Amino acid sequence: MATTPALSEDLLAKYEPVIGLEVHVQLLTASKIFCSCSTRFGDPPNTNVCPVCLGLPGALPVLNRKAVEFAALAAMALECRINEVSIFARKNYFYPDLPKGYQISQYDKPLAEFGFIDIDLNGGKKKIGITRLHLEEDAGKSLHEGFADSAHKTAIDLNRTGVPLAEIVSEPDMRSPEEAYEYLTRLKEIILYTGVSDCNMEEGSLRCDANISVRRRGQKEFGTKTEIKNVNSFRFVKQALEYEIERQIEVLESGGKITQESRLYNANEGKTYGMRSKEQAHDYRYFPEPDLLPLVVDEKWQAAIRASLPELPEARRQRMMNDYGITASDAHTLTLTRAMADQFESAARTAKNPKRVANLVQSELLGRLKAQGLELEQSPISMAGVTASADLVESGAISGKMLKDLYDLCFERKQDFPALYEAEGRPEQSRDTSALEKLADELIAANPKQVEQYRAGKKTMIGFFVGQVMKASKGQANPQLANEVLTKKLEG
Fold first, then answer.
1. How many CB atoms neighbour CB 9 within 10 A?
2. Which residues, other chains included, contact 286 with Cβ-Cβ below 8 Å and sequence gap of 6+?
3. Rounded CA gap, 242 and 259, in Å?
4. Distances in Å between the alpha carbon of 117 and those of 27, 314, 338, 458?
5. CATH code at 455?
6. CA-to-CA distance for 455 and 444, rounded, in angstroms?
7. pLDDT greater at residue 228 or residue 457
8. d(Cα 89, Cα 328) in Å, to the nearest integer?
9. Once rounded to an integer, what is the mean pLDDT over residues 23-38?
10. N or C, which end of the chain has less CB nearby within 10 Å?
11. Same domain, 186 and 211
12. 454 with 444: CB under 8 angstroms?
């Protein structure tokens, strides 16, 4: 967490943060944006390279059509306007891992503009504008570790060079680290639903640069901003912004000035450090890429791309609440990933009570998965298995206690519910009224104090007696039948 001295609430209230985010999303194509080299992660260094991505003289780029379609699909999901004509440009700068000495990107004529994301904010909604989404190629990677003879040697891996990226630039509409965190969460969720990226931050498929400034509340002009580069988790973005807000306020309060610069966040120390003065657009000497024609995404192509746009999370939540009678909380959990939502809906359509299926997913399945560090795809109980178990509870064939025990066995034996239920001999709740009456008589005789409380008007004590019946029967009794038998005897 931030390690600057904690500022007073009065001082924090005196200033307003202004935050904008630049998110780089790696598009899930099999090959790079301007050549046929593989984008596969984890291959030996410098094995997925060719004259084009190495920037050798005379090698010409050829645009990857699938990268354009993925970027346009993401832009549509973010409510952006697709520009029919966009231009690639050369962004000139020198890094050791940029072999051409320039990056092919888009500048003043991007693929898409003027989008937005609605974020949840204190029970309401806030619209965060998206300035632009443009295509560009990634740079390589500098490797600074693993050299026993000298700590100062650096190697270059160019496998990432030319990997297709969509850069999504927000408007400076966020006013707190919490809003930035919520924006990133919603953005990632939407991108994952479209299927254009896996958004794997550990592999660099999603990276974030955060622009942050502070100004006196009521002031219209923006303050001088700093940019926090390449933060690799949403939690660290939030922490870095918290630290930087306090740092900038302290500088201003002490009479200093903020320097416009790029900074790095050290997660171990909870601090940002100055890296270099922040470049302006003219520093990059942008000019149109002479080896690529203007990109034309006409209405016919746009319509074909839009046809593959899936139902997005927010719309799906509302529809599922209407279709299956589930709560907003249920809908949110069940739509966290497209795969989970697809599986739930497939099961819910055949379930006797979709609401019970939703409850079991949250109360019984996800908790066990989390405890064992498993993803939904690794669950021994399929969504169809959850539905089968929900139907058995719904019909009264098994109790909640029996279901829990059967789920435990499923995870222990790595078996789906229907197979395990058959293997266990299709156990069912006891409906033997005479046995229940005998057990009820024993419990009433053994608990005179609770009987007195019930007969004095504390009717909730029935829950105590039903619980005792379920415990004594090891979950085999039918709780509804037990309730009826006990009520009759206690009232009598």
1. 8
2. 89, 90, 91, 92, 107, 108
3. 18
4. 20, 11, 18, 52
5. 1.10.10.410
6. 12
7. 228
8. 45
9. 97
10. C
11. yes
12. no
Would 1 be classed as within a structural domain? no
Question: What range does the domain containing 67 cover?
Answer: 9-302
For the stretch 230-255, pLDDT in tens is: 788 899 999 999 999 999 999 999 99
pLDDT digits (tens, 9 = 90+) for 47-58: 999 999 999 999
* Contact by Cβ (8 Å): 214, 18: yes
The residue with tokens 């069940």 is 334
Place of tokens 């593989």: 38
Amino acid, single-letter form, for residue 225: K
What are the E-state strand segments in 232-377? 261-266, 271-277, 287-288, 295-296
Domain assignment present for 307: no
In this structure, the answer to whether residues 208 and 355 fall within a common structural domain is no
DSSP secondary structure letter of residue 43: P
CA distance 151 to 456: 81
Q: From the CB of residue 353, how many other CB atoms can be counted at a distance below 10 Å?
A: 17
| One domain, residues 419 and 439 | no
Sign of CA dihedral 110, 82, 80, 185: negative
> Are 68 and 138 found together in one domain?
yes
Are 453 and 423 in contact, with CB atoms under 8 Å apart? Answer: no
Count of beta carbons in the 10 Å neighbourhood of residue 398: 23
Q: Could you tell me the pTM of the whole model?
A: 0.82
Q: CB under 8 Å to 154, separation ≥6 — which residues? A: 96, 142, 143, 144
Residues 19 and 83 occupy one common structural domain: yes
Both tokens assigned to 105: 């990107």
Classify residue 433 by its DSSP letter: H
Residues 124 and 272 both lie in one domain: yes
* 117 lies in the same domain as 237: yes
Number of domains in the chain: 3
- Calculate the CA 328 to chain-centre distance: 18
φ/ψ of 275, rounded to 5, equals: -110, -50
**Do 344 and 446 lie in a common domain?**
no
Burial of 255 (0-12, 13-18, 19+ CB in 10 A): exposed
Residues contacting 349, CB < 8 A, separation 6+: none
Of the candidates 423, 445, 476, which is a domain's last residue?
A: 423
Q: For residue 2, is it within any domain?
A: no
Q: Quick one: residue 419, left, alpha or beta (phi over 0 = left, psi -120 to 50 = alpha)?
A: alpha
